[in-house]
Amino acid sequence: MPIANYTTSVQAIKSVGEIQGMLVAHGARQILMNYAKDGAVESLSFMIETPYGEIPIQLPVDPPAVLKVMEEQGVPNKYCNQVQSVKVAWRILKDWVMLRYEPHHHHLLAVSL
Question: What are the start-end ranges of the E strands in 1-110?
Fold first, then answer.
């Protein structure tokens, strides 16, 4: 089974916004978008309160690694490119955050593995 979300048409910035919304809904503060030299968002950083105090968290994506997996898994060539791997990486992270903070979506876990 190929990597999750490999056919997505959702732009990365929309996934970033969805992730930010989930994080804020669950208590995140000071959300920062961290940019690569090419201007692409490469990670989100935020602060969140825990029983041990407020801690910083960083959620990175790794589109080159996603592209490598797509190629190794035989995903059709029309999806195996840098632009698509960025979209896929952010959708995978969005699914992970949704499962982490909104466990009633646990049925998606079987699709994502």
Answer: 29-35, 41-50, 53-60
- Per the CB < 8 A criterion, the answer to whether 59 and 43 are in contact is yes
Confirm whether 17 is domain-assigned: yes
Domain of residue 107: give its range.
12-112
Q: pTM for this one?
A: 0.87
For 28-63, write each residue's pLDDT tens digit.
999 999 999 989 999 999 999 989 999 999 999 999
Look up residue 3 and give its DSSP letter: P
CA distance 59 to 42: 9
In a domain, 6, yes or no: no
State residue 111's pLDDT score: 41
SS3 17: helix
Q: Residue 1 falls within a domain, yes or no?
A: no
Q: How many domains is the chain built from?
A: 1
Based on its alpha-carbon atoms, the radius of gyration of the chain, rounded to whole angstroms, reads 15
78 falls within a domain: yes
